[in-house]
Amino acid sequence: MLLSMVKDHQTKQAVKKEIQEIKRKEACVAANQLTQALVDHLNVGVAQAYLNQKKLDAEAKQLHTSAVNFSKQTQQWLNLVENFNSALKELGDVENWAKTIENEIKVITNALETVYKHSQENLPLQ
């Protein structure tokens, strides 16, 4: 009777150990699944952040390229305006020079006319 109780106890202990081992394995599997789910959830956020960073980098490069092109275009416009301004100044200088020459020619013409009239008046009649 004592021997059967010991065997019965050992059998029950063995069954409990098997059940406990099965539950331990199930707990390990569940813990692994939970860990994997958490890592996957975090990886989704990290992947999204990575994709956003790549997009930002691409847009930053595009913006930099656009800014450089805009700067070059602005410099070209400034050069054109400076050239146009210089041409206008030269035109003004030529106009001023022409007016000065015209006035001097008028003075010379008036002087020549006056001298000619004087010389005509002073000539004896023949």
Task: Explain this structure.
This is Biogenesis of lysosome-related organelles complex 1 subunit 1. It comes from Cryptolaemus montrouzieri. The chain is mostly helical and 126 residues long. Helix content is 96%, strand content 0%. The mean pLDDT is 90.
* Unreliable segments of 5+ consecutive residues: none
End-to-end distance, in Å? 185 Å
Quantity of strands, as a count: 0
Question: What is the oligomeric state here?
Answer: single chain
Shape: rod-shaped
**β-sheet strand percentage:** under 5%
Mean pLDDT: 90
| Secondary-structure element pattern, one letter each | H
Rg of Cα set: 54 Å
The major sheet is characterized as: none
Helix content: over 70%
Family: Belongs to the BLOC1S1 family.
InterPro entries: BLOC1S1 (IPR009395)
Protein name: Biogenesis of lysosome-related organelles complex 1 subunit 1
Organism: Cryptolaemus montrouzieri
Helix and strand topology:
Elements: H1 2-122
What's the short version?
By secondary structure, this protein is mainly alpha-helical. The chain is built from one helix and no strands. The model has no long low-confidence stretch (mean pLDDT 90).
